[in-house]
Specification:
The complex is a heterodimer of chains A (325) and B (333). With 325 residues, chain A is α/β, with parallel strands linked by helices. Chain A has a domain at 249-325. Chain A has twelve helices and twelve strands. Chain A has helices at 48-55, 84-87, 99-102, 109-118, 125-138, 144-147, 157-168, 187-204, 215-221, 239-244, 249-257, 317-324; strands spanning 6-15, 22-32, 37-41, 64-71, 74-75, 92-95, 175-179, 207-212, 224-229, 232-238, 306-309, 312-314. In chain A, strands 6-7-8-3-9-10-12-11 form an eight-stranded mixed sheet, with helices on both faces. Chain A has a four-stranded antiparallel sheet with strand order 2-1-4-5, covered by helices on one side. In chain A, helix 4 runs parallel beside helix 7, helix 5 (125-138) crosses helix 7 and helix 7 runs parallel beside helix 8 (187-204). In chain A, 48% of the residues are buried. Chain B has 333 residues and is of the alpha/beta class. Chain B has helices at 54-61, 84-91, 111-121, 128-141, 158-170, 188-205, 216-222, 240-245, 250-258, 298-302, and strands at 3-14, 28-39, 43-47, 69-74, 77-78, 94-97, 176-180, 208-213, 225-230, 233-239, 308-311, 314-316. In chain B, 44% of the residues are buried. Chain B has a domain at 110-169. In chain B, the strands form two sheets. An eight-stranded mixed sheet of chain B has the order 6-7-8-3-9-10-12-11, sandwiched between helices. In chain B, helix 3 (111-121) packs parallel to helix 5 (158-170) and helix 5 (158-170) packs parallel to helix 6 (188-205). The chains are: A alpha/beta (325), B alpha/beta (333). At the A-B interface, helix 8, helix 9, helix 10 and helix 11 of A face helix 5, helix 6, helix 7 and helix 9 of B. Chain A: Belongs to the ABC transporter superfamily.
C-alpha cells in the first residue's frame, strides 16, 4: 500500500491547565490518500473542526496539540512555526463555512487570489493575471475576465464560496480542507458548489477532506467517511459500507434519524438524550449514555478501533463482541 | 376539514428606510399575491430558499407586520377589520416557534417565567401555585423534567431550548402555530426528537401548523401539504404525496433533485440550476423563475403564469407545467 498523503496519528487537542486539561479531541487517527475524498462527519462538539484546524495548526493559541500529523511523511506538529505558512496554501488549501468573514471587503477578488499566488510563487504580473482568470474559470465563475475586478460584496454567497475555492486552489495544493463549505448556502447553490469541488478534484487530482454535519452531502461526494462523536473517532469506512452496514450504534442511530425525501416512516427514529459538553466524559465510551447496546465495560474503558472488514473500523465494545461471536 | 386560516392575494413590500447616504435601494416585494388556506388540524409547510419571502409570510399571518394589500381570515374573521383589543385576544389563538427561541428573551429570567409569559399576558396563569403546576405540566408534555423550571436558559442545550420554546407556544392552547425553521439550527440527532415531539403534540391537541423550512426532507415528515415559494410567489402547492412523487413545477423538481440524499448508491441524475436567485429588488418580468428555468421560452418573459389547478388539490404556476416523476429516487427504505 502506498503511503497516505495525510496520516493523523493519535492527535489530542487540549485546552486549559495541563494539570486539569479539557480534552476536545482524543487520540484521533485516520488517513487521507492522494486524490481521495474523505468526509469527516459529526455533530456540534464532535471535535471535527478542531481536528481539521490542527492539520494547518490554525487552532486557538490556548490549544495544546499532541500526537503526529504526517503530511507527505513530514510531521506537521514537529515543524517550526515559521515553516507553517509554506505548508498552508501551497501544500494544503482551506475553504471555510462563511466566505464573507474570510474575504477582504475592500480588495478586489482578483487581488486577493493574486495575493495567495504571490505568497508562494514568483512570476511576471501578466502571467499571474492569467492564472487568476484561469482559477476563476476553474471554480465556475461566469465571465471571469470582468468579475476579477469586482469586490466580495458584489457576489452572492455561492459565488463567494467559489472565490474562496479559487484562493485555496491558487497554488495547486495536493490537499483541500473544506470546513462546512456549503452549510450557509441554499440547496440549489449547495449543489453547484459541491459539483465544483468534485470537478476540481477530478481535474487537479487533489485530495479533499470535507468536514460536515450533513450526511446527505458526504453520501453525494465522499469516497470514505470518518465519523466523530464527542471528540473521538467512532467509525471509519468507505462510503458504501458506512451507509449500508454501519457498525457503531451512534452511526446506526444517526443514519436512521435523518429525514429523507423518500422514506415513508410515520415517525423518525430518535437517539435519546443530547451530545455531552466537551470534557464532561473523561472515562469510557462517550456515547454510552445514549447507546441502546451499552455494556458495563463501556463505562470504564474507551473501546479501541476494531477492524470490521476491509477498510472498515469501529470503536464499540458491543460491536467487537458481535464480531467475535 | 374546515378552514382555519384563509389568505387572499397577500402582498408585502419593504421600502429602503435606512439612513445611509447615497441612493435608496428599490423596494423589495417580499410577498407577492399569495393565497392559500390552512385547514384545522393540518400542517402546511412553506418551503423555499433564502429571500423567497417565507418568513415574511409567517409574520403576516400572525399579524406581526401589516400587509400592503390582501386579506387574512382567521377562524372566519377578517384580521384587517379587527380593532387592537380584538387582535390582542386573537393572539392567544396563534403562537410562534422560532429557530432560536431564546434569541429575544432575557437570559436572567427563569424557564418558568419564559414559559408562562403568554399565560401571564392573557391572564390565564391563575395563582402562583396554579402557575407552577401549569408550567410543570407543560414541561412534562415537551419531555423535560418539571424541576427545570427554576433554571436559567443558558443551562440548556439547543434541543432543550427548542422544547422550552414549544412549551411556551402551546401554553395558551392555540389553534394555529407558525414554526419558522424550528429545527434547522439543531444537530441531526436532536432534529428527529423535535420533529417527533411537534408531530405528537399536534396529534394530541389538534392545532394547525404553518411550518416554514428550507429542508425538504424535514418537511416531508411533518407536512400534510406543501407550498413552494420562489421570489415572493407560490409556484406550486399540493399534498405531500403530489409534491414529492411528481412535482409539476420545474423549480420544485430542481429543489427536490438538488437536496443531497443520504444514500451513496443514488448519486446520479441531479439537476443543477444555473446562476443565483435573482435579487428580490429586481424580479424578472413574467415568470420570476424563467432566468434559471430549463423550460423557459419567450412567453415566460411576457406573461406571468397564474396559479392554476392541474389536478385536484394541486396548483402550479407554470405555462409548461407537467408531471416530473422522481424516477431515480425510489420510495424504498
Amino acid at each position: 500500500m502506498t503511503e497516505p498523503l495525510l496520516d493523523i496519528r493519535n492527535l489530542c487537542v487540549d485546552f486549559g491547565p495541563a494539570s486539569k486539561p479539557l480534552r476536545v479531541a482524543h487520540n484521533i487517527s485516520f488517513t487521507v490518500g492522494a486524490g481521495e475524498t474523505v468526509g469527516l462527519v459529526g455533530e456540534s462538539g464532535s471535535g471535527k473542526s478542531m481536528t481539521a484546524l490542527s492539520v494547518l495548526r490554525l487552532v486557538p493559541e490556548a490549544a495544546r496539540l499532541s500526537g503526529e500529523i504526517l503530511y507527505g511523511g513530514r510531521d506537521l506538529l514537529a515543524l517550526p512555526k515559521r515553516d507553517m505558512p509554506e505548508v498552508r496554501g501551497k501544500e494544503i488549501g482551506m475553504v471555510f463555512q462563511e466566505p464573507m468573514s474570510s474575504l477582504n471587503p475592500v480588495m478586489t477578488i482578483g487581488a486577493q487570489i493574486e495575493e495567495a499566488i504571490l505568497l508562494h510563487e514568483r512570476m511576471p504580473a501578466a502571467e499571474r493575471r492569467k492564472r487568476v482568470i484561469d482559477l476563476l474559470r476553474l471554480v465556475g465563475m461566469p465571465d471571469p475576465e470582468a468579475r476579477v475586478n469586482a469586490y466580495p460584496g458584489q457576489f452572492s454567497g455561492g459565488m463567494r464560496q467559489r472565490v474562496m475555492a479559487a484562493i485555496a486552489m491558487a497554488c495547486n495544493p495536493r490537499l483541500l480542507i473544506a470546513d462546512e463549505p456549503t452549510t450557509a448556502l441554499d440547496v440549489t447553490i449547495q449543489a453547484q458548489v459541491l459539483a465544483m469541488m468534485l470537478d476540481i478534484r477530478d481535474r487537479l487530482n487533489s485530495a479533499i477532506l470535507l468536514i460536515t454535519h450533513d450526511l446527505g452531502v458526504v453520501a453525494e461526494v465522499c469516497e470514505r467517511i470518518v465519523v466523530m462523536y464527542a471528540g473521538h473517532v467512532v467509525e471509519d469506512a468507505d462510503v458504501h459500507t458506512l451507509f449500508s452496514r454501519p457498525r457503531h450504534p451512534y452511526t446506526q442511530g444517526l443514519l436512521q434519524s435523518v429525514p429523507t425525501l423518500t422514506d415513508t416512516r410515520k415517525r423518525l427514529y430518535q437517539i435519546p438524550g443530547s451530545v455531552p459538553p466537551a470534557g464532561t466524559i473523561t472515562q469510557g465510551c462517550p456515547f454510552r449514555a445514549r447507546c441502546p447496546k451499552r455494556l458495563d465495560r463501556c463505562a470504564v474503558e474507551m473501546p479501541p478501533m476494531v477492524t470490521q472488514g476491509p477498510s472498515h473500523r469501529a470503536a464499540c465494545w458491543a460491536t467487537a463482541m458481535e464480531a467475535v461471536a | 376539514m374546515s378552514v382555519l386560516v384563509k389568505i387572499e392575494n397577500l402582498t408585502k413590500t419593504f421600502a429602503d428606510t435606512s439612513m445611509s447616504l447615497g441612493p435608496k435601494r428599490p423596494p423589495v416585494r417580499a410577498v407577492d399575491g399569495v393565497s392559500f388556506e390552512v385547514m384545522k388540524g393540518e400542517a402546511l409547510a412553506v418551503v423555499g430558499e433564502s429571500g423567497c419571502g417565507k418568513s415574511t409570510l409567517g409574520r403576516l399571518l400572525l399579524h406581526l407586520i401589516q400587509p400592503d394589500s390582501g386579506k387574512i381570515d382567521f377562524e372566519g374573521e377578517d384580521l384587517n377589520a379587527m380593532g387592537s383589543e380584538q387582535i390582542r385576544r386573537m393572539r392567544q389563538r396563534m403562537q410562534m416557534v422560532f429557530q432560536d427561541p431564546f434569541g429575544s428573551l432575557s437570559p436572567r429570567r427563569t424557564i418558568a417565567d419564559i414559559i408562562a409569559e403568554p399565560m401571564d399576558a392573557f391572564g390565564l396563569s391563575g395563582t402562583r401555585k396554579e402557575r407552577r403546576e401549569k408550567v410543570a405540566e407543560l414541561l412534562r408534555q415537551v419531555g423535560l423534567p418539571p424541576a427545570y423550571m427554576d433554571r436559567k436558559p443558558r443551562q440548556f442545550s439547543g434541543g432543550q431550548r427548542q422544547r422550552i420554546g414549544i412549551a411556551r407556544a402551546i401554553s395558551v392552547d392555540p389553534a394555529f402555530i407558525v414554526a419558522d425553521e424550528p429545527v434547522s439550527a439543531l444537530d441531526v440527532s436532536i432534529q428527529a426528537q423535535i420533529i417527533n415531539l411537534m408531530q405528537d403534540l399536534q396529534e394530541s391537541k389538534g392545532f394547525s401548523y404553518l411550518f416554514i423550512a428550507h429542508d425538504l426532507a424535514v418537511v416531508r415528515h411533518i407536512a400534510d401539504r406543501v407550498a413552494v415559494m420562489y421570489l415572493g410567489r407560490i409556484v406550486e402547492l399540493g399534498t405531500k404525496e403530489q409534491i414529492y412523487s411528481a412535482p409539476h413545477h420545474p423549480y420544485t423538481e430542481a429543489l427536490l433533485s438538488a437536496a443531497p440524499h443520504p444514500d451513496p448508491s443514488r448519486r446520479t441524475g441531479r439537476i443543477i440550476l444555473e446562476g443565483d436567485v435573482p435579487s428580490p429588488t429586481n424580479v424578472p418580468s413574467g415568470c420570476a423563475f424563467r432566468t434559471r428555468c430549463p423550460l423557459a421560452q419567450d412567453r415566460c418573459a411576457k406573461e406571468r403564469p397564474a396559479l392554476r389547478e392541474v389536478e385536484p388539490g394541486r396548483v402550479t404556476a407554470c405555462h409548461f407545467a407537467m408531471p416530473h416523476p422522481i424516477a431515480n429516487r425510489s420510495t424504498a427504505a
